[in-house]
Predict the 3D structure of the following.
Amino acid sequence: MVIFETFTTASDTVVKNLEPVYTNIATAVIIVLVGFMVGKLIGILLDKLFFQIQLDKFFSRALKRKFANLSRNLSDVVSVIIYAGSLIWALATLDILKFVLLALLYLAILIAIGALMLSLIDLLPNFISGIIIRNRNLIEDGKKIRTTGVFGTVEKSGLIHTKIITKKGDVIFIPNQSIYQNLKK
């Protein structure tokens, strides 16, 4: 009997402690659903209103530019703002807004660092090759060279690329990494 009473007391305690959590989750779900319904409804109403007042034509005439989907885009922006507001409100109801915003911030920082690293993939080897070419005087301005299937006169050798002018007068920029690899051969 003692085990049954202990189990009953423990389960009652767990249920009482989880009750506010379930209430918050249900409230958050309702906020999101209502927010999305209101956002969609307002988006449709604004789209119809903008169509009735011919917003696209008004701005096309006023700014002398064609605005084909301005009314649709504006109504979509308002809908998305309402969606985002309902999500933020729901996350605040669950007391996880700060955590989610920090996670999104960290994700944005990681994406920015990844994008920066991807942009440096081509830049770094060309920069290093440019420094080597300059230090060893492998290419001089005004000198004729043949590299990567191009024959011409070096107009300017920079740190990232070299500007070559062909006999026909074409201006070609060749990455220094390609030039250095061909000069090593």
